[in-house]
């Protein structure tokens, strides 16, 4: 029986880069997604998040699994500096010429960079990217939703076999004891 902890691929690396995120709610949702899909680190640029987080506590309402206690959330001036040897830079945004996510092959080691909800990723960062992908939706999703979809797509395209009842028991909320009726 495989558990989530047993199935962590030690050869992979997943970092999430956020360009000037606007709110603690969004960053908290990203932190929760990072915990669910076992990302290694969240980096962010800009001052809006830090300023908003200082005055409001919404992040703690959306990061209900407290991923922030074991996944670093780090401010940085430059997301390009987070790309070390062997780590691919993948920008995720609605940018003309980008690859639709269903067609994208994820690298083993990546930093996925997401633009702010009220803006986009700078052209210089797009130009430096190893790949630019987008989630094909009608309209744009919010930041945390986009991160969830990308991380799920990465998981779904791997060979990791983590789908079993042990994972369900480990992952569900305490108030959930529902089972599928055996026929």
Automatic annotation (TrEMBL):
Q: Does the record carry S-adenosyl-L-methionine as a key word?
A: yes
**One biological process term in Gene Ontology:** tRNA nucleoside ribose methylation
Q: Which domain of life is it from?
A: Bacteria
InterPro entries per record: Alpha/beta_knot_MTases, RNA_MeTrfase_TrmJ/LasT, SpoU_MeTrfase, tRNA_m1G_MTases_N
The alphabetical list of record keywords is: Methyltransferase, S-adenosyl-L-methionine, Transferase
Instruction: Please state every residue range assigned to the domain named tRNA/rRNA methyltransferase SpoU type.
Output: 16-152
Q: Which GO terms describe its cellular component?
A: cytosol
Q: GO MF terms on file?
A: RNA binding; RNA methyltransferase activity
Which SUPFAM superfamilies does the annotation name?
alpha/beta knot
The record, for Pfam families, names: SpoU_methylase (PF00588)
* Entry's family note: Belongs to the class IV-like SAM-binding methyltransferase superfamily. RNA methyltransferase TrmH family.
What is the official name of this protein in its record?
Answer: Putative RNA methyltransferase, TrmH family
Organism (species):
Shewanella benthica
């Amino acid at each position: 029986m495989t558990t989530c902890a047993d199935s962590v691929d030690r050869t992979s690396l997943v970092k999430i880069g956020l360009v000037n995120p606007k709110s603690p709610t969004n960053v908290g949702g990203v932190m929760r997604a990072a915990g669910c899909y076992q990302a290694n680190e969240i980096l962010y640029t800009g001052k809006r998040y830090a300023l908003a987080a200082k005055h409001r506590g919404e992040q703690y309402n959306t990061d209900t699994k407290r991923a922030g206690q074991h996944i670093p959330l780090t401010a940085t001036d430059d997301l390009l500096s987070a790309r070390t040897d062997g780590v691919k830079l993948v920008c995720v945004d609605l940018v003309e010429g980008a690859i639709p996510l269903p067609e994208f092959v994820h690298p083993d080691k990546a930093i996925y960079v997401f633009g702010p909800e009220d803006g986009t990723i700078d052209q210089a960062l797009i130009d430096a990217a190893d790949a630019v992908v987008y989630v094909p939706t009608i309209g744009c999703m919010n930041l945390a939703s986009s991160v969830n979809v990308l991380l799920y797509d990465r998981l779904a395209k791997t060979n990791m076999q983590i789908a079993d009842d042990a994972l369900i028991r480990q992952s569900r909320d305490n108030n959930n004891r529902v089972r599928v009726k055996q026929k």
